[in-house]
Amino acid sequence: MTTKIQCWSCLKESPQAIKCSVCGVLQPLKRENAFSYLGVPISFDLVEQEFEKNFLDLQAIVHPDRYGGAHPLEKYYASEHSSFANAAYQILKNPIERARAILEIHGVSCDSKLNPELLIQAMERRETLESMISTEELRGMLEEMKSNASDLKQKIKIKFSQHQFNEISGYLDEFTYLSKAISEAEQLLEKKA
Ligand SMILES: [Zn+2]
């Protein structure tokens, strides 16, 4: 059964959608999760091109620039939709945010507690990075970290497919630290270049 809504503008009933199917006026934002809003399954294993296309199609409809002469309420709904679409797109694009969003939907708390072991590892890694004088060494370490990150992402993917949500949180923390170290190494490399 499709949910019906009453259009705020023409007051006719139409199926739940971004625009009224009768008068074509933009409807208020109904807060959904990032996945359903951008029309993709709730999955960690997403193809960026898929949700990117949906995002661009959606932005073409809701972009506030298109509502310059519209009713103030419709203009307001456009800006709400547009910023929600942007936020949803950012969540899906970032693997860490995407994973957190899925855990949240499944009611798994993933408040990142400061993990002392990871913190020490990260500090040591930074010291090693800073002490590296040759670009070669730095490049080698960067490659190694990138390969570790891709292994970790694979592990997270498997845990999601097995619905072992509770184990993912720890991997996510590790992935967060590693991603940070990778961007630090990349910055150092740029400085040396
Ligand atoms: Zn209408």
Automatic annotation (TrEMBL):
NCBIfam families in alphabetical order: hscB
Gene Ontology terms: biological process: [2Fe-2S] cluster assembly; protein complex oligomerization
Alphabetized GO MF terms: ATPase activator activity; protein-folding chaperone binding
Family in the record: Belongs to the HscB family.
Keywords: Chaperone
Function recorded in the entry: Co-chaperone involved in the maturation of iron-sulfur cluster-containing proteins. Seems to help targeting proteins to be folded toward HscA.
SUPFAM superfamilies: Chaperone J-domain, HSC20 (HSCB), C-terminal oligomerisation domain
Any one Pfam family match given in the protein's UniProt record, by short name: HSCB_C
Domain J, residue spans: 33-107
Record has Chaperone as a keyword: yes
Protein name per its UniProtKB record: J domain-containing protein
